[in-house]
Amino acid sequence: MKQREDHVTTVGELGESGVLARVLAQLSDSDAAIVGPGDDCAVLRTVGDVVVTTDTMIEGPDFRLAWHDGFELGWKLAATNLSDVAAMGARPTALTVALAVPRETPVSLLERIAEGLDAACRALAPGCGVVGGDLGRAPVIVASVTAVGDLEGRAAVLRSGATPGDIVAYAGELGLAGLGLSVLFAEAADGDGLAHSRSLPELWRTHPEAIAAQLAPAPPIPLGVAAAEAGATAMMDVSDSLSIDAGRMAVASDARIAFDAERLRLAFGVQSDVEVPVDAMLYGGEDHGLLATFPAEAILPTGFRVIGEVVSAQAPDERITLDSAPLTARGWDPYTVQYPGAA
Amino acid sequence: MKQREDHVTTVGELGESGVLARVLAQLSDSDAAIVGPGDDCAVLRTVGDVVVTTDTMIEGPDFRLAWHDGFELGWKLAATNLSDVAAMGARPTALTVALAVPRETPVSLLERIAEGLDAACRALAPGCGVVGGDLGRAPVIVASVTAVGDLEGRAAVLRSGATPGDIVAYAGELGLAGLGLSVLFAEAADGDGLAHSRSLPELWRTHPEAIAAQLAPAPPIPLGVAAAEAGATAMMDVSDSLSIDAGRMAVASDARIAFDAERLRLAFGVQSDVEVPVDAMLYGGEDHGLLATFPAEAILPTGFRVIGEVVSAQAPDERITLDSAPLTARGWDPYTVQYPGAA
Predict the structure, then answer these.
(1) Tell me: the pLDDT tens digits for A72-88?
(2) Coil, strand or helix: which one is A52?
(3) Model pTM score
(4) Contacts B151 to A, Cβ<8 Å
């Protein structure tokens, strides 16, 4: 039967097996998968101990379709989970994806999510792929991704191993994703949240790096293994903000993390031609780069830049400092930190 | 501050970290976990290749709070994922849980879900436990569980290995969960779906085995490893129905699965004093027992009962038979198969 050209096929119309076939067609194999999607479980060839993490993105609190195309949503879902695997010093081997969506969701949106998941794996963690999943129905889009990684015989790098005398280093974009969110929020300030669907192309044009960092972050996943091999004593991905996550590392390690503003400015003050203020570095989140500590004599993998040092804990309420002054940990607040040049 | 005794603390009031602390308090350790919840990933000590599976339960299509207490919901979430791991011949080592709930959800419901997850692991797969998760906000409860298992050096048992001449066997309850659903639906026939919250205790009293099988199934998880060690050529957990899942196994194996009604009646005609008709065995779902094929000379692990044999595929549309007559695969339909003695 010929369909009207403007007809959009929905998930409800196509049914689970039809949707699944369309989604699976977007996916590449995982190198580690002896068995991929289609059996009760996927089977992963495994060398060392494995790491596993789960992260969910929910329409509304975590993303808006007016900002995120399905491709970017899939990309970000993969990137945020891959960075958790990298932060343990593991190589990502596989993702599973549980998607619950409204019946009226266009099938093409799910295809785009799968494309984004797959593209992020190929770009950020070659060899990793989606090996299984589940489709369900919910009033809003709920996407849960679980990532598995292989330590390949290495010990996991925990957040609790930072030791006084260690240097503190960071790899990846820092603060750009937060600036991107600031741009998006600034544009929504007096709108209904849908304004973005119209202004988004313009924002992409005026602030391409910051918008890309927010909507489709590209953390340096292979540097997780490199850091572990270089002797990293502690590592985390920075999801909430550098100040919040460094505070967590300091508490877990019972130490203090002392940031150096001049080093931050030198290393991350200009990223892809964008000026990034130190405040954006400290309080922006969602870059998903790698914060790691190394012994002072370690040779840092290319991509890591020194931004401070680990010192003895002085007081439980003084876990992070900037140029020796106590720092209050907080995450991105689009109403206090302005993007340079944004409205 | 003293709270009114009837005050129910909600997820929205307590916030993520508070809820997480209450939930984590319900969980036991996983034996395989070198690192449990609290870092970027959990770390699992691993012997062989690993298997991974994801299954989601969504309020509405998959469960109703009027029927499922949080404990049973958590139990069923664990059981359905553990049985997928068992069906590969693997030992379950860990679960991760992504929960999205409305703000007004009582924290106690999440504690009960965690209790149920933990209790099911301890009862069905001792040593397995929840090692990580994620909490989010959604208009209905969406619970995604990912299970990881260790093949411990064994090859995975796939659904594609059934070979003509093999015997077909099943372990676990068969049809009881479907009978339980029939009872629940019969009681809801002219109600608003909330009738159950009032009639549920009565149903538990009159049909305890069927209600338990539906709300908190107890598949024989350790028999997955036992079947693999006994030489199982193919294995699946029966989630949709014996006829549907056997049909999938037959297609994947390019063979035909021939059921024997007399053997089905002998092996599963009476379960826990409940009479189970062959129709309920073939068309009921959600028992999550193990369907496996073995070479004719294999010594079956205790718990497996022979219910048929694998024969050569005759025609692509004749994948399953009952006493040599073609059988149409279908799942549970509460309006055509009546529970003996139900209204």
Answers:
(1) 999 999 999 999 999 99
(2) strand
(3) 0.93
(4) 43
